[in-house]
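Aim 2 progress update. The chain analyzed this quarter is reproduced below.
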Amino acid sequence: MFLLGLKELNKQKLFSTLSFSLFFGWLLSFPFEGQVLSSLLESQALSYSFLNLAALCAHFTGLITGGFIINKLPAAKTVLSLSAGLCLAGSIIFLFHSSWLWYLVLAVMAYTAGLVVAGWGFFFQAHTQKDDRLKTAANVLILSNILMILANILAINFSAYIGLGFEMLLLLGSFFLSFRLQSYSGGNTRISIPLTKYPRLAYKPLVILSIFIVMITINSGLMYRVVNPVFAEYKFLASYYWAVPYIVTLLILRNLSIKISKAYILYVAMIMIGLSFLSFMLLQKSVATYLLIDTLMLGAFGVCDLFFWSILGNLLDYYRNPALIFGMGLSMNVLGIILGGFVGDYIFLTPYAIYYAVILALFVIFSVLILLPVLQKQLRILLQSHPFIFESEVKAEEQKEPFTVFQDNKRLTGKETEIVKLLRKGYTYKAISEKLLISENTLKYHIKNIYQKLNINSKMELIKIFTDANS
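Predicted structure tokens:
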């Protein structure tokens, strides 16, 4: 029975990943700074900036409100199915001559896409074990960007309408796959934490992560509004190569051993972004310069995206509504792009646009480098075993000391100590029972005893006890 359940869980994980990747591929190449939409507008001699800004704002609103509309897994499934169907139907409007309907339909599609992305937080949490969420996030980002490249190639090098037809096929595939999804959690147990008890421990890491996402994606907005227009004449090359460094970076990070720390790679990514903007300022425009800048910049953005996608995925277990947390987190990505776009549009009209853009980008990087140690410290409280999180600087002997003290003074058994260590690392009840080869009922019995011995009522109190003991 267990093997059958595991097989079904893996099947649901596959269906949810594929369905969402197809939808996200459409999102990246159409309403979200998409080249298919850009090509369609160009064919109709329409302004891209205003329509793109409206789509980004609508998408941001969908991400923010998604958690308030979607509060259960069945609702997330329904939203995915309805949104894929609605966006497919809405795409038909763009086959005809432009009208006011284009603006209305695009806004509706971008908003519902925000709901889908937020709602996928439920599937991300329910169908993927905590230790596997980095790979799942990488899989989604890799597949959706490959689909985006294919759509861009068709739209830019052949016809905007061929690109649109390909996009409609993606939505159709997502629509049908969504019906294969089951409305159950697959046995993944969310950590139950009363958020009113220690709200700082629960929310402070999320707030600081949100600030990090907004700041680093301001540079993405600058890339879209300042860097890309300078190299607009290389549109053919860009259609094939633009996202390749991003995908290659994700493939490398995905296949690195989980035991290899990826925390230092974040600092390497900051250096890469800085070098790309400096190259943009100092080097003459050429194909080689474009390839250098794009490789550095998109490779670094691949690192940053995988960082905050996987961190958000692992944080989902600590909150009651995954759609709210996932939507809020990724809305900060859109907000950063909007802010960077506003600034980029403004400075692009000035005589020294390149210099202003580089100065702003370097200031953002400097600020992020100051923020990163603070973010690492906060995330370490909840996600000690995450590959992007530095291990505690406390020596191994000092780390063992609090457990020894509690074993002696509170008479924790060896098994209870093992359970406490795994709980502190963020393991779910299911993962702990599998690792220790005990049933979940036996595990709950041990946890009840631990809480009684330590005179606490929740896992958050447990984390606070050992965090204070280590500090």
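Residues 1-6, 186-200, 394-401 have pLDDT under 50 and may be disordered. The chain has three domains: 11-189, 191-386, 396-470. These observations will guide the mutagenesis experiments scheduled for the next reporting period.
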